[in-house]
Amino acid sequence: MIKKWSIIVITCPTLSSVRAVETEVKFLKRKGRISEFVPVLCIEDHAKNIGSGAATLNALLVATEFLSVKNNYMVISSDVLLDEDILILHNGRDYLYSCCGKAFIPLPVEYTSNALNGKPSARGILLNFESVLGLIDELSEESPHGVWVCSTDMMIHQGLGKLCVDWKNVSDVLMFTVPSDLEYATGHGVVEVDSEGCIADIYYCASLSQIKNLSHGDEK
Question: What is the tens place of the pLDDT at every residue in 192-214?
Fold first, then answer.
């Protein structure tokens, strides 16, 4: 990890998945794949099928509570968010083949990490969770303080070359999107972008007829 996160919050659909993810995080910290100085909180969604929006708000509340205590506030204060870097990761679904969801599925990539801070060198198979962290590290380089939110249910092919963001042109919110087939997009959120590259509208679980006109001509 390159980014020095103030806190990482991982949302989980059930209490059993919380315990499973906590175990995986402990393994990653022992290997030095996650800094031992970064607090990682795994929390259960406060209701079933609440969606990523409500899960994000709940995670942000938990992060604010944690940082308020850490900074010696007597009550919860949003002031702690001004100079912090918060990462919220959604582990949104349980699967029969894995109690940790897609986040901790091994990828066909091998890694080798050098000895660091007295920890022995580690070698193993890269997990999707680690791939997501690496991608966010790359995208967030030189970014201002703020909150980052990402799903761990997708396996994103990063391609070749380094991704660079010109943060001087970012005002308040920056959204990263990936292309998908139209049929797949009907079950997720679709972003409409205007001629200046700004978000014009967001369609959630829209019908095929609603989003067909948003296609780039390649059926995506």
Answer: 888 887 888 888 888 888 888 88
Q: 165, 170, 207: which is closest to 190 by C-alpha? A: 207
Long-range contacts of 135-143 (CB under 8 A, 24+ apart): 135/163, 136/3, 136/87, 137/1, 137/2, 137/3, 138/2, 138/162, 138/163, 139/163, 139/165, 139/176, 140/3, 140/85, 141/2, 141/3, 141/165, 142/167, 143/167
Give the model confidence (pLDDT) of 22-34 as tens digits. Answer: 999 999 998 888 8
Query: Reduced to 3 states, what is the DSSP secondary structure of residue 49?
Result: coil
Residues 6+ apart with CB under 8 A from 8: 34, 38, 39, 40, 41, 86, 87, 88, 89
Global pTM?
A: 0.84
Angle of helix 15-30 relative to helix 128-139, nearest 10 degrees, comes to: 70
N-to-C CA span, the chain = 32
Nearest-angstrom CA–CA distance, 8 and 31: 17
State pLDDT tens for residues 104-121. 888 888 777 665 555 556
